[in-house]
Write a structure and sequence with these properties.
The protein has 145 residues and is mainly alpha-helical. It folds into two domains: 4-70, Arc Repressor Mutant, subunit A (Orthogonal Bundle), CATH 1.10.10; 80-142, Diphtheria Toxin Repressor, domain 2 (Orthogonal Bundle). Helix content is 74%, strand content 6%. The protein has seven helices and two strands. It has helices at residues 4-28, 33-40, 44-56, 72-94, 99-109, 115-130, 132-143, and strands at 60-63, 67-70. The longest helix is centred in the N-terminal third of the chain and has 25 residues, at 4-28. It is elongated. Bound molecules: cobalt (II) ion (CO). Cobalt (II) ion is lined by residues 19, 81, 85, 106-107, 110.
Length: 145
């Protein structure tokens, strides 16, 4: 029987694939299984079975000679993950988290953040953008030993 933790993991994995496929498509205009394998650090056979699963669920289609592309419902999920990614990454980077850590943390948090939390994070980042002197004070504090 599938536990809640297991289905959350499955959902996170699904979101990672859709996010990667969307981004690769934006970057290259073409997505192959080996691109996904490189991007996600996953073995090719695992990619093939996940891609088949995503196609079965209606999130992507294979196009002859053109690799794969997301369907509108796949794009909708991908855009939602990418939006979460941007908001989280923007805020924690602003607070001085180093880029490598910010990336790894964002990749984790993006799957679990509640919409209302995300909305507050976004507003806070917006506030910092509009009030850089306040962010500067906070940074002075954060950088103090
Ligand atoms: Co992400």
């Amino acid at each position: 029987m599938a536990t809640i933790a297991q289905s959350r993991r499955d959902l996170s994995r699904l979101e990672d694939y859709l996010e990667a496929i969307y981004n690769l498509h934006e970057e290259k205009g073409y997505v192959s299984a080996s691109d996904i394998s490189d991007r996600l650090g996953v073995k090719p056979p695992t990619v093939s079975s996940m891609v088949a699963n995503l196609a079965k669920k209606g999130y992507l289609e294979h196009e002859r000679y053109r690799g794969m592309r997301l369907t509108p419902s796949g794009e909708k999920v991908a855009r939602s993950v990418i939006k979460r990614h941007q908001v989280i990454s923007d805020l924690i980077t602003m607070l001085g988290v180093d880029p490598q850590t910010a990336y790894v943390d964002t990749e984790g948090i993006e799957h679990h953040v509640h919409p209302s939390t995300l909305q507050r994070m976004e507003k806070l980042a917006e506030y910092f953008h509009e009030n850089p002197h306040i962010l500067e004070k906070i940074m002075d504090y954060l950088n103090r030993d």
